[in-house]
Amino acid sequence: MRSCSFAAPRAVIFISLALFGSLAAAGPIRSVGNMTFLDANTLAVADWRGGEIHALQLLPPAKAQSGPFNLGDISNPIARALNTQPDKLRFEDMAFRPGSNLAYIALSVEQKSSTPKPALVTVDSTGRVAVIDLNKAVRTSAALTDAPAAEKRLWRDIPEAAYTVTDMAYYEGKLYVAGLSNASFASTLRVYSYPFSGSGSATSVEMYHAVHNQTETRAPIRKMVIASLNGVPTLVAAYTCTPLVTIPLKDLKNGAHIVGKTIAELGWGSAPVDMVTFDVGQGPMVLLTNSHKSADLMPVSAIAEAALKPGLSTPIKWPNEPLLGLRSTSIPMSGLAQFGSQDKDFFAALRRDEATGAMELVSVRKGAFLRLSDFINEYDFAGFKYPPGEQWSGTHKTLRTDEGFSDLATLGK
Prior knowledge:
Blueprint: E1 16-17, E2 35-39, E3 42-47, E4 52-57, E5 70-71, H1 75-81, E6 89-97, E7 102-109, E8 117-123, E9 129-132, E10 139-143, E11 153-154, E12 158-159, E13 167-171, E14 174-180, E15 187-193, E16 201-209, E17 214-216, E18 223-229, E19 232-238, E20 243-248, E21 257-259, E22 261-265, E23 272-278, E24 285-290, E25 295-299, H2 300-307, E26 324-325, E27 329-331, E28 336-341, E29 346-352, E30 359-365, H3 393-402
Parallel strand pairs: 1-9, 16-21
Antiparallel strand pairs: 2-3, 3-4, 4-10, 5-30, 6-7, 7-8, 8-9, 11-12, 13-14, 14-15, 15-16, 16-17, 18-19, 19-20, 20-22, 22-26, 23-24, 24-25, 25-27, 28-29, 29-30
């Protein structure tokens, strides 16, 4: 992508937001990772170091400006708010609070000689940053039982326990938590009733991986959504390298070991970044963004049809036939750090500027699936004129306005 001119964040608010609710849990929050909203005022946060999931009760949000995000650098204002340097920030997750147009961003802040410090901030579309004081966060918590042992490592330096939670989804009063356990069949789905009441259930999951040509029981689900497939509430899960698997929720029973159905192989050499569902008038869709390849767009109806067929059981033919099963539509989204649904009109993404390394927070209109200002093309030159009735002129006008270039909205007219 080209280096774009974005609006600079206007202000940083150096405040701590108090939280309210029942009495706070006794122990400190030791890490913040995957997040999901349980309702407009409750944010679930995975704390793998503390071995807990916390449900934070949030104050009513300050009024935020509506509309898209076009922030070219949020690293510096967040670092200033947290009294650190931008290169000390690790962006762990992002979630948009329903109805607020506020991005909640979970971070780990590197320390000189100690464990990274957890942080949670909000950012609005003008670039204002507010810090949530996790020490004052009134919350309820649930234990993450049977987490991987603290001494276990991946690639020498990565704690296996960091993958105790890889994603969370909330559906009809239950929080579904994907990740690892310390069992020999390590890939685990935990389920908690909310409000939290005692320990949750845990089900181990295996699936067939058509790229690796093996049944896998250790590699965890990386991203997931819950959708109704043929009238059955079903978890749709994506794994690294990139099998797509369906698991009916009714199969998740405490202590059980189940086999998910692999309905697609979407491409090797990549890991899921985020998975969202949305509908812009063409029926429910699933969008899976990936670390090293294009995003995958799939109608829920096509996923449902694939779920009725036998699962995959034979390998791909590498490298000439890398895909199997359900076919997706490739969408030009890659290089994203975090991704999610902002509101009914927009997705939002955290991504690095390729030239400066700054972390951007930008909106992408649903249905368009790109930011026009990422590119230089024929439409952008002063001498270009749209032919009469040209189908893209209206779309370009909308996207230019979305992306902060309203002065160029009539270019080519």
